[in-house]
Predict the 3D structure of the following.
Amino acid sequence: MIDSLLRASPVCAPVLADAERHELQVLYTQIDRGAGNQPRFTRHRYRVEPDAYFYPASAIKLAGALLALEKLNRLGLSRDEAVHIDSAYSRQTSVHQDSTAPGGRPTIAHYIRKLFAVSDNDAYNRLYEFVGQQHMNEGLWDKGYDDARLTHRLAVARSAEENRRTNPFTFYRGDQVLHRQPMLVNPHTWRAPGPIPKGTGHIRGGELIEAPKDFSGSNYMSVEVLQDLLVAALFPETLPIHRRFALRAEDYPFLHRAMSMLPQECPHPTYDPETYYDSYVKFLLFGDSKAPMPANVRIFNKVGLAYGYMVDNAYIVDLEANVEFLLTAVLLVNDNGIFNDGVYEYDEVGFPFLAELGRVIYEYELQRERPHAPDLTQWRLD
């Protein structure tokens, strides 16, 4: 089905014709509502394989947000409590003040907003440090999200030993200490069972290494798990209890606002609109344009962009047309086969393809008959 829809598009057809080289995977989920507005999902897959490795980049940040909110709930802490982050091991960095946060003090809520609004890497790293490497993985595996491996911080070079150790945290309310968390150490070293070679060469330390890059120690999350986590964040009532995250009822509206927030809608920090335009982290439908996005369309998503891999994991809603669907896609745009050289075809191939993919599925959804019109009132967020 996906194949036939996309091959009719002059933008998408060339990528499909070379889908193996582009490592293309697409997971499109139709949503049909029952008489009581309960959602029913029908998944359509194109080249989706859990064993087909791709680098998920920032798309994993949704897992960090879910696990951090769950841990706060378990500890009885608010997401708005001030936090001190200290250093206890090689190349750990501390944070006691944040001029961009309300009151000048970092909080987990502030990091989650930054993580979604502009895909801030440091914000994710702080959640990774709070949750700890061991629970970042076991917290997913215990819920059945097996095709995932989260082994390192993002955009900072750290050894495996440094990534197994995460910073001490202290939570405060005024001068009162609410909770102290010492440095956490994962006793396990997790990596793929064998090498995952990609490309013909890679840059390391500024030098070209004429050998494939090995991703066996890198983060991984399958397309299916990415979309499963999206469902857990947006439609937890559709899942069995053991697949849900233990969030408070008030966590969901906060999370949903953060996931759909445009950079200019973020109260803290404020972002320069020339740099952080509406579609800065909305690749599907709008990723090839810097024009303002229409107010009737909301996209609850998390993108990834690194090494030539492009990922978008999204729930797309048109509040006027009563359209909703889930769409997760990954493709590689790295024609020269060199990883980490910064030479990728994002603008020439990647953004146009993902935007057109979103438009093709959206146009199909506009015409698709549904047994019941969906009530999308809950997604009319302030």
